[in-house]
Design goal:
By secondary structure, the chain is mainly β. It has a single domain, classed as Beta Barrel (Acetoacetate decarboxylase-like). 9% of the residues lie in helices and 51% in strands. It is globular, with a radius of gyration of 17 Å. The two termini are 21 Å apart.
């Protein structure tokens, strides 16, 4: 039985190219940074975590919630193949119990903050808004998209961002947790306007304040799907 089954829906993904040196301290043992066309990426992602079941059980009042995370991409060579995964620097949710379970049992980096979201269907577009409050100020991921879904192209940056099927967590300098994430290949909505406003320094600390001055390499909305997370193993 999968450890967790749920849906990840309406994933607004804002992606930046960064110097890989700033991420080295976060790289778990046994993995290395995964590059796309020689570029190192971090992604800010807002989405809906819905219909959550842990070991087949639906937890009252904890089955549907927002999440905003900051992640980057790594790979691990095992049994002759590269396994591509993500490392989460920060994960923000509105439920204390979610943070407790993830931090306690998976050594993740969850934080609990007030959050809200709004999804709008306009005549010619869709809007996806995710907000979280820090120091009495609301941070916002807000993208406007075309109404009709399109494929995520093979060998595209969007494919690189979405097609990582493992999670890696740095326990300490010598140990790593690995867990597998399963989901079908996603479609996307093309983003036509990005109105996001994030106080990077306040939310993520001084080392990520520089992102405010960067232009995203891409912004897109992955439609999402049902997902499963298999139980962790130590490597």
């Amino acid at each position: 039985m999968s450890f967790l089954k749920a849906e990840w829906n309406n994933l607004a993904m804002i992606n930046y190219e960064v110097n890989p040196q700033i991420l080295q301290k976060y790289v778990p043992k046994g993995t290395e940074i995964d590059f796309f066309n020689g570029k190192c990426y971090v992604s800010f992602i807002g989405f809906l975590f819905e219909n959550v079941r842990v070991l087949g059980i639906k937890i009252p009042f904890h089955s549907d919630f927002e999440e905003v995370n900051l992640r980057f991409y790594v790979r691990l060579f095992e049994n002759g193949v590269w396994k591509r995964g993500a490392v989460f620097i920060s994960e923000i949710v509105p439920k204390y119990a979610i943070s407790f379970v993830a931090n306690t049992f998976y050594n993740e980096h969850y934080e609990t903050l007030p959050m809200k979201h709004l999804l709008k269907v306009n005549e010619n577009s869709r809007e996806f808004i995710y907000q979280w409050k820090v120091n009495n100020n609301w941070n916002t991921i807000h993208v406007e998209t075309n109404k009709n879904p399109i494929l995520i192209e093979v060998d595209s940056e969007a494919e690189f961002i979405t097609e990582h099927y493992f999670g890696y967590t740095k326990i300490n300098e010598n140990e790593t947790f690995e867990y597998q994430v399963t989901h079908p290949r996603w479609q996307q909505f093309e983003v036509i306007n990005n109105k996001s406003e994030i106080d990077f320094e306040t939310v993520y600390g001084p080392e990520f304040a520089f992102i405010k001055e960067l232009k995203p390499t891409s912004v897109f909305l992955a439609i999402g799907s049902k997902i499963s997370i298999e139980d962790k193993r130590k490597i």
